[in-house]
Known about the structure:
Blueprint: H1 3-13, H2 21-25, H3 33-50, H4 61-80, H5 86-121
Helix pairs in contact: 3-5, 4-5
Keywords: Membrane, Mitochondrion, Mitochondrion inner membrane, Transmembrane, Transmembrane helix, Transport
Function: Mediates the uptake of pyruvate into mitochondria.
Main location: mitochondrion
Amino acid sequence: MSVIYKNSMNVIGKFVPEKLQPLWKHPAGPQTIFFWAPVFKWGLVIAGLGDLQRPANKISVSQSCALGITGLIWTRYSLAITPRNWNLFSVNLFVAFTAIYQITRALRYQRQQVALEAAKMSPSDSAH
């Protein structure tokens, strides 16, 4: 680490309240990338929650699958590393859940469309 970074963290650390010192000094605390990467990844969760209003026919199943799979992989990884990163765990769990929900919505819509097309193609019972 650079001298500038270390000195900056030492100065900032003096202003951190005593009760928050364990978090400040934690191996996955705010002085590390292990804290900030999950914090910014919450933006994906916010975007995913915003997409819940998106019409089902506009959902990309492949993109949602990619997000869901990576969410599950990183959820597992966050518990396999030392120290365990609970912020990374929770953000990836939410990424996976929102993606899985979107996949469910998209596939349900596609199934409904197939059923509607089949109903249009079958002869009507009222014609007899």
